Amino acid sequence: MKFIHRGNYKNYIICLIALILSVIAYPFLPEQIPIHFNAQGTPDDYGGAITIFLLPVIMILVNVLAEVTKHVDPKAANYTYFLGHYYQLFLVLNVFLLAVQLYLITYALEIITFNITNIIMVAMGALFVVIGNLLPKVKQNFFMGIKTPWALADEYVWYETHRFSGKLWFVLGLLMCVCGFLPDILSVPIVLIVAVIAAIVPMVYSYIIYKRKSKP
C-alpha cells in the first residue's frame, strides 16, 4: 500500500514552504506574536514566537490524515471515483492556511499590518465556492462530505444531498465573498447566518429526501 499518493505531493510541498517560512522568520520575530484577530482585524490574543510553527504542523497533520482516512474508511473503494477531487479540497485548504501563515509572519514583523478581516471573508467565500463545486462529485464515505445517517444509509440520498448542498454552498460562498466588501456591522452577522445555513439546511434536506424515498 502506497502511503503518499502522487496526487498529494503538491500538498506536502505547500506544507514544506510554510515550514521554511517559519524557520526563516523565527529568529526575527518578537517574543510575543498575534495568533488571533477580532472582527475588526485587531489582534486579541498572543503567543510565544514558537507558535509560528503551529500552522505548518497542523497542515502536515491534516495531510497525513488525508492519507490515513482513505485507507481506513469502510467505503475506501469509493475513493477511486473522486480521489482527484479529494486532494483538490486539501490543496485549497493548504493554500488558504499558507496565506494565513504568511500574513501572521508579515504582521508580526510589521511589514504588512492591514485589516485582514475582509480578505479572510473573501477567502472563506472562495473556499465555500470550491467545496460547493466538489461536493456533487464525492461518493459515499465516512470522512468527507455531508455525512448524515440518512445519506450514509442510502446512495441515492447521498447523491441528492450532495447535489443540493453543492449548489447551496456555491451560492453561500458568493454571498460570503460579497460580505468582504461590506462594513463589519453588516458582514459579521451575515457570515454567521451563512455558517448556520450551510450546516443545518443540508442535514434537513437529507432527512426529507430519505423520508420521501422511504414512502411506499
> Describe the biggest sheet?
2 strands, antiparallel
Q: Work out the helicity level.
A: 55-70%
Number of strands: 2
Q: Pick out the low-confidence regions.
A: none
The total number of structural domains is 2
- Gross morphology is globular
Roughly what is the average pLDDT, rounded to an integer?
A: 88
Structural class computed from helices and strand pairing: mainly alpha
Helix run count: 7
- Widest sheet, order of strands: 1-2
Helix-strand pattern: HEEHHHHHH
User: Which band does the percent of strand residues land in?
Assistant: 5-15%
- Through-space gap between termini: 44 Å
- Gyration radius, in Å: 19 Å
Oligomer: single chain
Explained architecture:
This protein is mostly helical and about 220 residues long. It has two domains: about 1-115, no CATH class; about 115-215, no CATH class. The chain is built from seven helices and two strands. The chain has helices spanning about 10-25, 55-70, 85-110, 115-135, 150-155, 155-180, 185-215; strands at about 30-35, 45-50. The chain has a two-stranded antiparallel sheet with strand order 1-2. Strand 1 (about 30-35) and strand 2 form a beta hairpin. The longest helix has about 30 residues, at about 185-215. The N and C termini lie far apart (about 45 Å). The model has no long low-confidence stretch (mean pLDDT about 90).
